[in-house]
Amino acid sequence: MIDKFVATAAQAVADIRDGATVMIGGFGEAGSPIELIHALIDQGARDLTVINNNTGSGHVGLAALIENRRVRKMICSFPRTANSTVFPELYHAGEIELELVPQGTLAERIRAGGAGIPAFYTATSVGTPLAEGKEHREFDGREYVMEPGLTADFALIKCQQADRMGNLVYNKTARNFAPIMAMAATTTIVQANQTCAAGELSPEHIITPALFVQRVVHVANPQQESQLVAQGRQYP
Predict the structure, then answer these.
(1) Whole-number CA gyration radius for the chain
(2) With 144 labelled, which of 49, 59, 167, 218 sits at a CA distance of 20 to 30 A?
């Protein structure tokens, strides 16, 4: 019988190698796989290329991964938010690279990568610095810029419920980028608030089918920033 459950977050991320490309789900804190990210910090992989909507906040999760100098390059839409100071400081010091992508284009690049589409044309960014050096074409009198699809070696995502086979259900908008990241990664690693036996999830409710998931770790009580700091989990 197929069983994709693993015992710990540490086991789930053990084979992420130096230099890997990692997609990380989450829109701010919503849907962020914080425990998997901190397990990756403990694991020690570095020189990572990370694809995410933003660059984290505070000193936990993705921000902590960046602060520990594990990330060589960020591909994201919002490199700075109200609570983001780690990335801007390292970027201005020349210690991390940035590929800035409009949010809708980022989502479509990930979706295209998962669908096996190597590139597509969009009008977004035409006439801006983000379009410089990229192929342009005109369709029906309008100019478009070509954007490549995005794939990754690993995806770290979070769901509300997962079964033993790896079928996933999300909690409302906390799904955000997770379904398309699962499709675009070679190895998808999931932290689930709840787990269940195969067949317990209604097929009508499953958002990400098991085909796109390789590992699931049960995290019953995901930690918030204040809890992590109280436990001495603030990094570095």
Answers:
(1) 18
(2) 49
One digit per residue, pLDDT tens: the chain, 236 residues? 789 999 999 999 999 999 999 999 998 788 999 999 999 999 999 999 999 999 988 889 999 999 999 999 999 998 876 677 899 999 999 999 999 999 999 999 999 999 999 999 999 999 999 999 999 999 999 999 999 999 999 999 999 999 999 999 999 999 999 999 999 999 999 999 999 998 899 999 999 999 999 999 999 887 654 444 444 454 44
Distance CA 217, CA 34 (A): 12
Residue 136 within a domain: no
- For residue 144, is it within any domain? no
Cα–chain center distance at 108: 14
Query: How many independent structural domains does the chain possess?
Result: 1
For residue 54, the enclosing domain spans 5-118+150-227
Q: What is the pTM of this model?
A: 0.92
Residue 161: give its domain's CATH number: 3.40.1080.10
